[in-house]
Amino acid sequence: MIKATVICGGSAVYRYDETGKVPSRKFLNDHGGVVDVKTFNTPGEYDAYSMGLADADGWEETALTDKEFTTKKDKSTDCKLCNTWRDIFRDRSRDVYCPDCGKLIIHPDDANQVASDTAL
Ligand SMILES: [Zn+2]
Question: 98 CA distance to ligand 1 centroid (A)?
Fold first, then answer.
């Protein structure tokens, strides 16, 4: 588990840059901004959050869309429950999507195709 503090808001970040200290609640009340402690289960989660903050920096609005899994049978994109659902639904003859994260976890057509791992 990784713990990190995120500071949002121009005055609050400037204050942090100046003092090296996380702005107090009083400072935030007077000047605006938010301080929040985040926890991450893996370094990858931390890196992803960090990249998201960096990309959104300076923009008033951002949107994240067109999510897709680009590699089939890539277990690294499983949520905590993908494997559990895969076991429960393993005898299904149709596509099954994880009820928790929406990932395609069973795709019966693939099982009979030799080259399926190299497909999109
Ligand atoms: Zn899942």
Answer: 5
